[in-house]
Structures are given as C-alpha cells and as structure tokens.
Write a structure and sequence with these properties.
- The complex is a heterodimer of chains A (168) and B (195).
- By secondary structure, chain A is an all-alpha fold.
- Helices cover 71% and strands 0% of the residues of chain A.
- In chain A, α5 packs across α7.
- The longest helix of chain A has 24 residues.
- Chain A starts with a helix and ends with a helix.
- Chain B is an all-alpha fold and 195 residues long.
- Chain B has one domain.
- The longest helix of chain B has 41 residues.
- Chain B starts with 7 loop residues before the first helix and ends in a 5-residue tail after the last helix.
- Classes of the chains: A mainly alpha (168), B mainly alpha (195).
- Chains A and B meet through α1, α2, α3, α4 and α5 of A and α1, α2, α4 and α6 of B.
C-alpha cells in the first residue's frame, strides 16, 4: 500500500469510527486524559497494521480487533484505575435542553462507570454490543464463537443491571 | 442478527458519551511524530555504536603501541555480540503474527519474557565487557590494575555505572514479571478468544 493510499484509508477509517473508538477506549481508561492516550495508541497500532489488512473481514472488524488488543496491552501496563472523572458535556452539541443534556450525560457516565467495573471478558462483549455490533461481528473481533458471545453477553447484561441498580 | 435488542436503551445512553477531543487528522499527526521518534531512537543507537567504534579506531591510529589496535577488534567484537544478543532476545517480539487477540497476547507475553531474560544477560554482558577491557589493557598495554581501577572512566562506568545499570535492569525485570503474570492470567481468563 502506497503512503498516500494508506494515509487516506487511515483517515477515512478513523473519521468514521472515532466516537466509537473513543467510547471503547473510555471503557478501559480511568480519565479522559488516559482515554485520549489510549486512543493515540490505537491510532498508532492501526497505522502499523493497515498494510497487513487483506480484506478477510470488514475494515470495521479489523479496526476493533486492533483497538481491543491495544486496550488489553493498556490494562496490562497501567497503574490501578483512577476514580472516574466527572464526564464533561459535549460542547459542540448545544441543541439539547440543558436539563436533558445533564440527564443524558449523567446516565452515560453512570453506564460507563458500570461497564468499567465489569470483568474483562464481559466488558469486551458488552462494549461491542453497545456499538451496534451483532453476534457474528463480536465473535470475529474477539476471536470467539458466537455461542460464547451469547453466554458472555447474557452474563454481562445481568451484571450490568446489578451494577446499575446499586447506584440509582 | 442484532445482539440483544433489549439493550437499545443502554445503547442510546452509551452513544451519548462526549466525543474524544482529538480528530483523525490530529491523531495522524501524532502517529507521524511517534514514528519519527522511533526511527530517531534506532538511528541514535546505531550512531552511538559507530561513534564508540570510531573513537577506538581514532585512538588506535594515533597510538604508537601495537596493542592499541586490539582495542578496535575488541570493541567491534563486543558491539557485535551485544547487537546479536539483543536480536536473539527480541526474536518473535517484533509484531504479532496476525491481528487476533491470541496473537497479540502471545507477542506481549514474549516481550515480557524477553525483558525478564534480558536482565541477567545484560548485567553479565556489562560486567564481562568491563572486565574484558581491563584484562586486555593490562595484558597488552601493561597498565597496573590499581591505576586502571581508579581512572575516571572506570569510576563512572564501573563503580557507579555497573550497580546503577544492574539495579535498573532488575527493577525493570521485576515490573515485567508482574506484567507477565497478569498477561498469562488474562490469557487463561479470556478462554477461547486467546488460545
């Protein structure tokens, strides 16, 4: 792959998936700074891996596979997770009424906090399911069977309900 | 097939999280900067090796002592040995064989094992290098042990450098031993995705 083609593909893939990658990184990070650093690691890994992409799966699956692998490396390296920082509102979105925006931000922060507390094998599947991936895609990203995805997702959903219930 | 339609409400909450501050172009710039930094490090290491060899050749060329050229042979041989050992230690650690989680964990585990193994080998090489240089100086240049052991170079590289280097290598190995235990536990925990 020539560099301009690689560059173009890199930018297109990242632009299309950046919010989802940010959320994925956020589920493995204790702060927005740590999330941004992890996102940078993912970008680096994607840049290095792109020439090896042979089209045996979708580009999105390939990207999330790389991202998950970076996240695992990250948790093997980092210090114990810091307490979750308060989530700031997205300054670009000024169309929502302030009460609604606050409510949504609190809900998403609460959900993120609960997801971060899940065991890794459950966190992996739930994060991908929350990104609208189906069983087949999740199985392909994580390299596990679809049956296993179903089992892990069921457990994750139960655990998530419990965790969300603990902090009404 | 949609994975768990009952997760829809959670999906909505999940996807309202604030977007990352960086955009793709900014990430690309940092990737380019990191790539340049990695290349510079490799060039600096190669340049450092060549500089040491060059300095030894320069000294040998200026010296009238016939044994001075042995320093060149010794330095080149030792530098070659260090590079060969470093290459041997890093075999199989350059990149995962594919993008699967199993391959990723495998390469991370290999890297940790390599760092753990590098500590005793690195310390042994450092000390062997020092002792070797003292021996050939004593044999070929006829220098006194007492005189050699008190030179500024020996004080910095030997009496101060050797313990500092050893401690740093052992601490690093200990950190990687912990990471290795974590990664091996993770591989067991992740089950069929990591086997």
């Amino acid at each position: 792959m020539t560099d301009p083609a690689r560059e173009q593909r890199f930018l297109t893939l990242l632009n299309a998936n950046l919010p989802a990658l940010g959320r994925l990184a956020g589920s493995y990070a204790g702060s927005t700074g740590e999330r941004d650093d992890l996102l940078q690691d993912i970008a680096m890994a994607l840049w290095q891996a792109l020439p090896r992409f042979r089209g045996e799966c979708s580009e999105r699956t390939f990207l999330f596979r790389i991202a998950h692998n970076r996240c695992i490396n990250h948790i093997a390296r980092r210090r114990p997770m810091e307490s979750l920082q308060a989530m700031e509102l997205d300054p670009a979105d000024d169309t929502r009424p302030i009460d609604q925006a606050l409510g949504q931000a609190q809900d998403s922060a609460r959900l993120l906090g609960a997801v971060q507390r899940l065991p890794l094998i459950q966190r992996q599947v739930i994060v991908l399911a929350l990104e609208d991936m189906d069983y087949q895609e999740i199985a392909s990203v994580l390299g596990i069977s679809e049956t296993n995805v179903g089992v892990r997702l069921n457990r994750a959903r139960t655990a998530l309900k419990k965790l969300m219930g603990e902090r009404p | 097939m949609n994975a768990m339609p009952e997760l829809n409400e959670l999906r909505q909450q999940w996807q309202t999280q604030p977007a990352p501050r960086a955009d793709a172009a900014a990430l690309r710039k940092r990737v380019a900067a990191d790539t340049r930094a990695n290349t510079r490090t490799l060039i600096a290491l190669s340049f450092g090796t060549l500089l040491i060899i060059g300095a030894t050749v320069f000294n040998a060329a200026r010296s009238a002592h016939p044994g001075a050229w042995f320093a060149v042979v010794y330095t080149v041989a030792f530098a070659l040995l260090v590079w060969l050992v470093a290459m041997w230690l890093s075999r199989g650690t350059w990149r995962p064989r594919d993008e699967s989680m199993a391959a990723c964990l495998d390469v991370s585990i290999r890297r940790c094992r390599s760092v753990v193994l590098a500590a005793p080998i690195g310390i042994a090489l450092y000390i062997a290098g020092l002792i070797g240089s003292l021996i050939w100086r004593q044999k070929l240049l006829g220098l006194e042990w007492q005189q050699m052991l008190n030179t500024p170079a020996m004080i910095i590289a030997g009496w101060i450098g050797a313990p500092l280097y050893s401690i740093a290598m052992l601490i690093n190995a200990q950190l990687h031993r912990r990471r290795l235990a974590f990664l091996e536990g993770l591989r067991r925990q992740l089950g069929d995705g990591a086997e």
